[in-house]
Amino acid sequence: MNNPHSHKLFGRRGVVARRMMGVVLPVVLVVLTVLTGLVVTQIRRNAIDERLAANTRETVQLDSSVQTVLRWCEARIALEPQRTITVVPGTATTAPAWDKGSPNWGNASSLDFVGAASILPGLSADPSCVIEDATCELAPPISPTGQTGASTCAGNGDLDPRWRKFRLTAQALTPAPDMGGTRAMLTQSELRLFIE
């Protein structure tokens, strides 16, 4: 037991063991740093995914609302095409009648749906439509009977007065706190009607 050779052997083992304990701390710190970086990266990725999902949800909700408003406008024209308030379409030199900065929105020229913001999800203001009388864009002759009439469209020839074309633009607004204001979505459709 008191062999000097075994004492030296045990002494060396103690030095090697002390050296190994000194390496464990830096290895553990490196592993923890790598794991912390991975966790932080995953948290950031999840936050970006949440923002993308919220933006997609808001866009789908706003699109659904503006499509509903557009169907309401189409129904209004189908029921009373002669008594529907219309505006003159824009030309190549003027802004479109449905332009966001146009004075046609929110006055007597637009078809406003008062109170609709409370029944359509996600809207911050009542939606509205601008309806353009685009009859002059029809190309004559488009009459099943060959009937022609006095055209109100300059240079468009004889156009059956029973044909009408409407361009509808619906607008819906939603709050956009990330942009510091509101986000607008516009959608359009066209109706061609033969009115007897």
How would you describe the overall organization of this protein?
The chain contains one helix and four strands; from the N terminus they run αββββ. Helices cover 39% and strands 19% of the residues. β3 and β4 (181-194) form a beta hairpin. It has one domain (37-194). Strands 1-2-3-4 form a four-stranded antiparallel sheet. The longest helix has 76 residues, at 4-79. By secondary structure, it is α+β, with helices and mostly antiparallel strands.
Looking at this protein, list some descriptive labels.
single chain, 196 residues, alpha+beta, 4-stranded antiparallel β-sheet, 4 strands, 39% helix
Q: Could you tell me the strand content as a percent range?
A: 15-25%
Number of helices: 1
What percent of residues adopt helix (DSSP H or I)? 25-40%
The domain count comes to: 1
CA distance, first residue to last residue: 122 Å
Low-confidence stretches: none
Shape: elongated
Q: Spell the H/E element sequence.
A: HEEEE
What would you call the structural class? alpha+beta
Strand line-up in the sheet with most strands: 1-2-3-4
**In terms of quaternary structure, what is this?**
single chain
**Number of extended strands:** 4
* Gyration radius, in Å: 36 Å
Biggest sheet overview:
4 strands, antiparallel
The averaged pLDDT comes out at 79
